[in-house]
TrEMBL record:
Belongs to the polysaccharide synthase family. Keywords: Cell membrane, Membrane, Transmembrane, Transmembrane helix. It is found in: Cell membrane. The keyword Electron transport does not apply. The chain crosses the membrane at residues 20-38, 44-65, 77-103, 115-133, 145-168, 174-195, 215-241, 253-272, 284-307, 319-342, 354-374, 380-400, 412-433, 439-459. This is Polysaccharide biosynthesis family protein. It comes from Collimonas pratensis. It is a multi-pass membrane protein.
Length: 489
């Protein structure tokens, strides 16, 4: 039991390190590449990457996930996963390569054809590596996965930057991605010290078919919710707008991926420990939401207000058209951090259909609004995606509050400090921008905003929450409880 707990703790730590390191390294590489390349180049890569993400979520994960969740998989079962993924990967690679001309014609972008054909190699590499990943995850060898991810992303980034500086244009991004995925495969094979056999087994196919279909359908919905916006932008507005949208999305989503997703992992044991006790679930939920907003809200508000100097200082003046989109997506991801936490709690309550139905409704609304407002350009489409979240969020919150018997007064006690602090922060930053003398450099402007935010936000949170935290359980108490739980385990 101690060994299992130790392995779980070690795996969690390495998983977090993997996530944080990948986000940090990828963001730095992206910022450097943005200095050398135009938005069109990133837009072309995004279109190709959408196809790869779809295959990973809907095909390869659908084959591998039932095995990871299963009872006691052996090497023969992993070899069957490898055989299925490899066979499908070969077909999808050929499909992507030979359909590149037709897709580029549909997008009216001839330069998209070589990008799609080059990126088709990544589909093959992802298919070949999926069985190895499943085997390492099941054996809780997260350190090896982290080393693989960090090494491949860093190496691919260095290669991509060198080629971009040499004038390779969009193909530098293709070589970067193919190098990273190919090196990831080589490293995993070397770390695993395991070579699969070719195994075709109809019995295993029949046994896992229902699970594969279920995971595949979930993957379709997940892909649509997380990447449907980029797909719609690429279809209606083309590669240039897609590149701008991709930058705005990466800037804002990085906050969500690092902070909000980590808090969702913390939420799972908190909700599990509460069990069917609605009072305990409510307290745990309010604390997790409070901590999440405390960390996420000021960063997103800072990005929204100082988007223009921030984009110009980090990525260059050619990316300034993406600045208004950063402000819109900051609100979207602020709402998203709460909605996804609500989904976790719905699953804990056994109401699994609610998040699925809300996700479908949000996706349908976003698509409907985007189709009607794409004539207003990228800002119109971004507002459409945000508007869909604004319409679905109250429904999600009302349903959850009813399920928990949670009153608005209790929510206000929990969320007032970060919300009031963020509002005052926005007003303070707007005042700062209005009083700043003209001619100040973008870097200096951002640095001054950081100084104001570091002072103003904590001060307002402390003032607002001094008495409220005495009524509602302290956030600091939750962190101490989590630390004690970790020591007990």
């Amino acid at each position: 039991m101690n060994q299992k707990s130790s392995g779980l703790a070690s795996g969690s730590i390495w998983s977090i390190i993997d996530n944080l390191a990948q986000q940090a390294i990828s963001f730095v590489i992206f910022a450097v590449l943005a200095r050398f390349l135009a938005p069109d180049a990133f837009g072309l890569l995004t279109v190709a990457h959408l196809f790869i993400l779809f295959t990973r979520l809907v095909v390869f994960d659908a084959i591998a996930m039932p095995v990871i969740r299963g009872g006691a998989p052996d090497d023969r079962l992993y070899s069957w996963v490898f055989t299925c993924c490899a066979a499908v990967a070969l077909l999808l690679t050929a499909l992507m390569f030979f359909s590149a001309g037709a897709v580029s014609s549909m997008y009216r972008a001839p330069e998209l054809k070589p990008v799609l054909q080059g990126m088709s190699l990544s589909v093959l590499f992802f298919g070949l590596v999926r069985a190895y990943e499943a085997r390492l995850v099941r054996k809780m060898m997260f350190r090896q996965l982290a080393v693989r991810s960090i090494g491949s992303v860093l190496t691919g980034g260095v290669v991509g930057i060198a080629l971009a500086a040499s004038g390779w244009g969009p193909m530098s991004l293709v070589v970067q991605q193919v190098t990273a995925s190919g090196l990831a495969l080589v490293l995993v094979v070397a770390q695993s010290r395991w070579l699969p056999r070719i195994v075709f087994d109809r019995g295993l196919s029949r046994k896992y078919w229902n699970d594969i279909r279920q995971v595949g359908l979930s993957g379709v919905l997940s892909f649509a919710n997380t990447n449907g916006d980029s797909l719609l932008v690429s279809i209606f507005l083309g590669p240039y707008a897609t590149g701008l949208y991709n930058l705005a999305k990466r800037v804002t989503s990085s906050v969500y991926l690092v902070i909000a997703s980590s808090m969702q992992k913390v939420a799972l044991p908190v909700f599990s420990d509460a069990g069917a006790d609605l009072s305990a679930l409510s307290r745990g939920y309010l604390k997790i939401v409070g901590i999440t907003l405390f960390c996420v809200a000021p960063l997103l508000c800072f990005q929204a207000v100082l988007a223009e100097p921030l984009v110009a200082a980090v990525f260059g003046a050619k990316w300034l058209p993406a600045a208004p989109i950063v402000g819109v997506l900051a609100l979207l991801y602020l709402l998203s951090s709460i909605v996804h936490l609500n989904d976790y709690l719905f699953f804990s309550l056994g109401r699994n259909r609610v998040p699925v139905l809300l996700g479908i409704a949000q996706l349908a609304l976003a698509t409907l609004l985007a189709v009607n407002f794409y004539h207003y350009g990228l800002l119109g489409m971004s507002l459409s995606f945000c508007g869909a979240y604004l319409l679905v969020f109250p429904i999600s919150q009302i349903l959850l509050n009813r399920a928990l018997g949670l009153k608005l007064r209790a929510m206000w006690y929990a969320l007032a400090p970060p919300l009031v602090g963020s509002l005052i922060l926005v007003l303070g930053l707007l005042l700062y921008l209005s009083l700043i003398p003209p001619g100040l450099g973008n870097a200096a402007l951002v640095a001054g905003g950081v100084f104001i935010a570091c002072f103003l936000y904590p001060f307002m949170v402390a003032v607002t929450g001094w008495r409220i935290r005495a009524v509602n359980a302290s956030w600091h108490g939750l962190l101490l409880s989590a630390m004690r739980l970790g020591r007990m385990r």
